[in-house]
Design brief:
Length: about 425
């Protein structure tokens, strides 16, 4: 599964390595130099002009609104509402419930909801997945900790789109009496997220480039900290067939199922209390989700949305664009930084990294960084220039999304002008 993704838990202005989404396999650790980070003021570059693309209306059948707000203590968390129903309901009826404040995470794959956020009128009609009559559970591990829960089946509806009988994870399911596995065959080291407060959301909508959370890796081998069969208090690692794994619901829509677009309105460089945008389903399937003719930057990726990168003379084997990461995470020797990891340039600074796609195409990814301590102290929740130190990858998080249309083509799905996924593309004006 994807090892770690990063977000900012800002209680006390501490930088926490926290988790977003379910992930698939990621490429190996990046190669970096051991050059020390400067903590003294440095000369700064002029910031780049902010991108100006605006979201399409969220009133169409293939769209839902995105909101960034102070729902939780996490900055830059894009949230949507998701309807879940008993399988076979067709997305309507008394077993359906709409779950608000679900994190849109483009670097994970599959729907994960806290049991406490699902009303009993729906929860009681979501059947548990079984192997040889034994319930299946999953541990998904992220920087903030682990999501431990059952695998259940649900119809998932968003606006006019319906994904029937989708395997989802129900986190902290009270029917799962076994404690989270530890040790050599257990979950990754970290805390067990058991409530929405731990995550800062009622769940995670993993809507990235992979159709499922770990694919052949979990089908053909016993992945550490992945799937288990649990009888009573005892759990045993198990291989999980691809079609039974926690699945990206978008891939299972009857139409508009080749990808998503995250479109966010630009915010001021000093931040905003809230931000809005639109999650669009499908790419080149309707008039409101065109990639063709936009002159977009297009990067072919591996199945899990990763490319490679070069930044400040160092090479990284893992780089990605992630709506579930609250900051721009990278390692710079040119910027001053605070003890808690926030970069603190004296003035907004333009930075750039060279990204290399899996087909060897390259593009220069430009972003701005301002004083993170000042931004957080403002009390705002939406920032387009929040940078944080990270050593082993380049994680272009939510700040990059403001003022852009970010396209995610799902692996193996065709129908867009970019060809079959996986790929990531973006339009900045």
């Amino acid at each position: 599964m994807r090892g770690l993704k990063w977000m900012l838990a800002v209680s006390g202005m501490c930088v926490a390595l926290a988790g977003c989404g379910g992930g698939g396999g990621s490429s190996g650790a990046a190669t970096t130099s051991s050059a020390p980070v400067s903590n003294s003021p440095v000369a700064v570059n002029t910031a780049y002009a902010d991108p100006t693309a605006t979201p399409v209306s969220s009133g169409s059948a293939n769209t839902v609104p995105i909101v960034v707000s102070s729902f939780s203590n996490v900055r830059n968390f894009p949230m949507v509402s998701v309807k879940v129903c008993a399988p076979g309901s067709g997305g309507s009826g008394s077993t359906c419930s709409t779950i608000d404040n679900v994190l849109v995470d483009t670097e994970s794959f599959g729907l994960r909801l806290f049991a406490s956020a699902i009303p009993s009128s729906t929860y009681n009609f979501l059947p548990q997945q079984l192997q040889a009559a034994v319930p299946v559970a999953e541990c998904a591990s992220f920087g903030s900790g682990n999501t431990w829960g059952t695998v259940r089946t649900a119809d998932v509806a968003m606006s006019g789109e319906l994904a029937p009988s989708v395997p989802i994870q129900v986190i902290a399911d009270p029917m799962l009496t076994a404690t989270i596995p530890t040790g050599l065959t257990g979950c990754a080291t970290g805390s067990n997220m058991t409530t929405p407060t731990n995550l800062g959301a009622n769940g995670i909508l993993g809507s990235g480039t992979s159709p499922n959370d770990c694919g052949a890796d979990c089908q053909n081998s016993l992945g550490t900290g992945a799937y288990y069969t649990c009888a009573g208090s005892s759990c045993t690692p198990t291989m999980e067939p691809v079609n039974s794994q926690v699945t990206n619901p978008v891939k299972m829509f009857t139409g508009d199922n080749n990808g998503v677009i995250v479109e966010m309105q630009q915010v001021p460089d000093t931040g905003a209390a809230t931000a809005t945008g639109t999650l669009v389903f499908g790419i080149d399937t309707r008039s409101n989700n065109a990639l063709s003719g936009t002159n977009a930057t297009i990067l072919q990726t591996n199945t899990y949305g990763d490319v490679t990168a070069t930044f400040e003379g160092r090479s990284y084997s893992t780089a990605f664009f992630d709506s579930g990461s609250s900051g721009l995470y990278f390692q710079s020797t040119a910027l001053s930084k605070a003890s808690n990891g926030f970069y603190t340039p004296a003035a907004p600074t333009g930075m750039s990294a060279l990204f290399t796609a899996t087909n060897a195409a390259t593009t220069t990814v430009k972003f701005n960084v301002a004083n993170g301590v000042t931004l957080i102290n403002s009390g705002n929740y939406a920032f387009n220039n929040l940078g944080v130190a990270l050593f082993n990858a380049i994680d272009i998080g939510m700040p990059f999304f403001y003022g852009r249309h970010m396209f995610y083509g799902i692996s193996g799905q065709s129908g867009s002008s970019a060809g079959s996924g996986p790929y990531v593309a973006y339009v900045s004006s």
